[in-house]
Design a protein that fits this description.
Elements (H helix, E strand, L loop, with lengths): L1 H42 L5 H12 L4 H26 L7 H16 L15 H4 L9 H12 L5 H36 L6 H37 L15 H12 L4 H41 L2 H44 L1
Helix pairs in contact: 2-3, 3-4, 3-11, 4-7, 6-7, 6-8, 7-8, 9-10, 9-11, 10-11
Length: about 350
């Protein structure tokens, strides 16, 4: 009888223990979910999974604050293009796969640019001209290295002019890299096309795609040759325009390229004048971006210094300023690259009209 009376008590005790365990597990599960939600929020910088993975990898690498901000801008542009492509694909508007191929090519350029393509020779060091002057990083081209060495030791350039010239050299290096990636893509496409036994309407479409790629290669090569000739002249003669040796309408390398191409495009005098004015605004936007890049790098250096001192109030103020500069640099970087994309597209259309 006593044993029977003890059963309810035992059952109650077991239920309480189970409830306690359940509460414990629920708490742990909730804490785990909260942590995973936090991770998901951190990882949700981009709406495309692949881009989030690249961003997470970049944050684990020893990239400078400026390079991280630049990468963020590049990935934002890539995200916009990929989301637009998904919409087109859903509507059946990329049957030949050309836009998808271009997206892959652009992503390859980004991965190569920031040393994340798995090739040891393309890994970038955590340096840039803003932080380390002009002594770091390589140009990967003996001709460019020779010109840069000559310019640097000539005594014809102030520190500010050397900074400006270094940006021109680095821009030229990027143009060569993009050209080589495009050339590799075209070569692969041609090899596949040659191995097709039965010609079809689809293959005729691919021939048109190849033709477009060759035209793009031709435009890039022309830009590279013009750019190298300009670097050669500036390196030998300096930026002294009073002698009339170097006549330049703009100072920013990307704007100089756009202006040179615009003058070769099928624009009327009125359209060209309007484009010139727009390029002036674009150059001002780039200069503002450069300003914030410099401030971000300075803030990053100060933050590292304050972290060593252990002053919490000072540290919090510096963290707030750094976060603000980081966001502003990302925002301006995206706007600059989006504007550059739009301007390049307009010029490309004008150059295509020349060939018709």
């Amino acid at each position: 009888m006593a044993a029977v009376r003890a059963l309810p008590a035992l059952a109650a005790a077991l239920l309480l223990a189970a409830a306690g365990q359940a509460s414990k597990y629920s708490r742990e599960a909730n804490e785990g979910l909260a942590a995973s939600d936090g991770k998901r929020r951190e990882a949700g910088e981009f709406r495309v999974v692949r881009l989030n993975q690249i961003w997470e990898k970049a944050q684990r690498l020893h990239l400078s604050a400026v390079k991280l901000a630049e990468l963020h801008s590049d990935l934002k542009i890539q995200e916009k293009d990929e989301l637009s492509w998904k919409k087109l694909k859903a509507e059946g508007l990329d049957e030949d796969g050309e836009k998808e191929a271009k997206l892959r090519r652009n992503l390859n350029v980004i991965m190569t640019k920031y040393g994340m393509n798995g090739k040891k020779d393309s890994q970038l060091v955590d340096t840039n001209y803003i932080k380390d002057g002009t002594e770091s990083d390589t140009l990967d081209d003996p001709r460019l290295e020779k010109l840069w060495s000559k310019a640097k030791t000539s005594g014809k350039f102030s520190d500010e002019e050397l900074d400006k010239l270094w940006r021109e050299f680095k821009h030229h290096k990027e143009k060569i890299r993009e050209y080589n990636i495009l050339l590799e893509t075209v070569s692969r496409t041609e090899d596949i096309h040659k191995n097709v036994i039965n010609p079809s309407e689809e293959n005729l479409v691919k021939e048109e795609i190849l033709h477009n790629k060759h035209r793009e290669l031709k435009e890039k090569l022309r830009s590279i040759n013009q750019g190298f000739e300009r670097l050669r002249k500036v390196s030998h003669q300096g930026y002294d325009t009073t002698s009339g040796t170097i006549q330049q309408e703009f100072e920013e390398p990307r704007v100089i390229d756009l202006w040179d191409m615009a003058k070769s495009a099928n624009f009327t005098e009125k359209e060209l004048e309007s484009f010139r004015e727009e390029l002036k605004h674009f150059e001002a936007k780039i200069e503002k971006h450069h300003h914030y890049q410099k401030q971000l790098e300075i803030s990053h250096q100060k933050l590292k210094h304050v972290e060593e001192t252990g002053d919490k109030d000072h540290l919090n103020r510096n963290k707030e300023k750094y976060a603000m500069l980081q966001e502003k640099t990302k925002e301006l970087g995206y706007k600059v690259k989006k504007h550059l994309q739009d301007l390049s597209s307009r010029i490309s259309q004008g150059l295509q009209h020349n060939e018709l």
